[in-house]
Amino acid sequence: MPVYKDNNKKGSWFVSCYYKDYVGHKKQKVKRGFTTKKEAQSWERDFLEHYSNQPTILFKALVDVYLEDYKAKYKLSSYYVKEKNIQSHILPYFGETKINNITPNMVRDWLNNLQAKQGNTLSTETKNGILRNLSAILSYACKYYGLGSNPCKLVDALKDNTKKEKIFLTLEQYKAFRSNITDIRDKVIFDLLFFAGLRRGELMALTFGDVDMDNKLLHISKTKGYAAGSYVTTPPKTTTSNRVVTLPGFLIDEIKEYKEHCLDTDAKTSLFSIGKASIEYKKDKYLKLAGLPYMRIHDFRHSHVALLVELGENPLLIANRLGHSDIKMTLNTYAHLYPNKQKELAQKLENL
């Protein structure tokens, strides 16, 4: 085995070996600083197993390569969410298993145990999301490590028989919510959420330069999320999330008033400099004062869509305003808001 004494450092060993990466390129790896030959050999075995490109690789070694590849392709915030999901819910069960020994029955047993163990804290939607993460890892193994088939493909997702309706505020309810806000910054924050349909990360990433006062436009080109102990600003969720949204005149006037209270209004300066916890705290406070039930920040986005539907706007315009990549996403998510519009259409035809 290519393990050698390090002549430059007495009592030290090093590894020098060749391997092929996941696309088949031959590379050399040198690792120094081992105190014993056995320690160096153990490290080399683990490393070569990492890049063995064989379905006998341990699942935990496959995850390391998969996450390394994922990190190079996707947003850092998305990477940390996926890593935490895998570390918490998947690795404890499959980590020491060779990937070619993972069967549909094992996956089903894991999913059922996950359901029982985490039943009080994880929704069915979340559990199915964890299953999709496992499936993505094993599909990666099929592509790059010679795994014959993905056992997750034979496992049914969990069924959720509870009827869930999206929560949203009507315009009158939002007016009641807003009537308790005296701080101009808070007014601008929640008006942007309700009247522009921004995602929380998009709101937090806004800078003064993103607001075109003259043309009443808001440029959405980035998002901010919490990852690895700090906030990071990255490109938006999808290509179509990079968009320009028109704002009503009263909201532009509010932003102008708010800007007058700010010391630094440079184009690259954050518009709000506020974190997730602060937005949540303010949202909960104003909901309580208005006597309204709990809702998430993302539900303001649903409220915006409900308002646009009530105003009679067409789904394509709504999809573009939200930054959806496909109008089907908009229709599938908000179809329940349209029944009354069908009745109105029928009445219009009746009146012809």
TrEMBL record:
GO MF, any single term: DNA binding
GO biological process, one term: DNA recombination
All residue ranges annotated as the Tyr recombinase domain in the record: 164-347
Pfam families per record: Arm-DNA-bind_4 (PF14657), Phage_int_SAM_3 (PF14659), Phage_integrase (PF00589)
Taxonomy, superkingdom: Bacteria
Role, per record: Site-specific tyrosine recombinase, which acts by catalyzing the cutting and rejoining of the recombining DNA molecules.
UniProt name for this protein: Site-specific recombinase, phage integrase family
